[in-house]
Every structure is written in structure tokens, then in C-alpha cells.
Amino acid sequence: MLTLTENAQQAVSRFIDSAETKVVGLRIAVTGGGCSGLQYAMNLVEEQEPTDVVVECGPVTVFIDELSAPVLREVTVDFLDGLDGSGFKFENPNATNSCGCGNSFSA
């Protein structure tokens, strides 16, 4: 299933620790949009949905809706922090095409 690198786990843990409400984990989903038709969505969540696929990635619990799960199979999420900025990067072997900016893909 989906994997968070150590850098991504540390970044998500920092966000969870600084949240103003009780957070149980990170939701990752695939939604329609972007140049290539699909894009990733990430947000901290306060509760699990009954149909979520649950993935434990070190100290981080990741929740994935059942429609996004097949597209996120074998995806690796990393967190990059450099002079050009910081953010999450998705490596998706299921993507058949991605846009030039790297923010959307097709599967």
C-alpha cells in the first residue's frame, strides 16, 4: 500500500502536534482536477470514516477512502525542504501521465 518516507512522517507529525484540535491522522485522497485530470488531496482529520483503508506509517496513521485506494497503491510520499521551498512529493507508479508542474496526473 502507500508509504510515507521518514521525512514525510516527521513533517506530518509536526503538523499533527501543532494542530489546534485533536487529530487522529492524515487523510490522503485522489480527486478530480489539475492539468492531467487527477490530483492529490491531503488533510489532517479528527476521525476515521467507516469505509477508510487504514495504513500505519511509523507514528502516522493514514486514512484513504476506498475509491482512492487503488490509485494510491505502491505510492511513496516524501517531504522535501530546500531552497526552492518545501512540500510533499508523490511518487506514483500507477500514473500514466503527469503535468509539467507535477501537481496532477492521470492513471
Keywords:
single chain, 107 residues, mainly beta, Hypothetical Protein Aq_1857, Chain: A, 3-stranded mixed sheet, globular
Please report the total strand number as a whole number: 9
Tell me the β content: 35-45%
Largest sheet report: 6 strands, mixed
Counted up, domains total: 1
CATH class: Mainly Beta
- Unreliable residue stretches: none
Q: Count of helical segments? A: 1
Structural class: mainly beta
Give the CATH H-level superfamily.
HesB-like domain
- Mean pLDDT rating: 90
Over all CA atoms, what is the radius of gyration? Answer: 14 Å
The CATH architecture designation is Sandwich
**Spatial strand sequence of the major β-sheet:** 4-5-2-3-9-8
Q: Percent helix among the residues?
A: 10-25%
Determine the CATH topology. Answer: Hypothetical Protein Aq_1857, Chain: A
Distance between the termini: 16 Å
N-to-C order of helices and strands: EHEEEEEEEE
- Judging from the principal axes of the Cα atoms, what is the shape? globular
What does this structure look like?
The protein is mainly beta and 107 residues long. The protein has one domain (3-106): Hypothetical Protein Aq_1857, Chain: A (Sandwich). Helices cover 11% and strands 44% of the residues. The protein contains 1 helix and 9 strands, in the order βαββββββββ. The chain has one helix at 6-17; strands at 3-4, 25-32, 38-45, 53-57, 60-64, 76-82, 85-91, 97-98, 104-106. The radius of gyration is 14 Å and the shape is globular. The chain starts with a strand and ends with a strand.
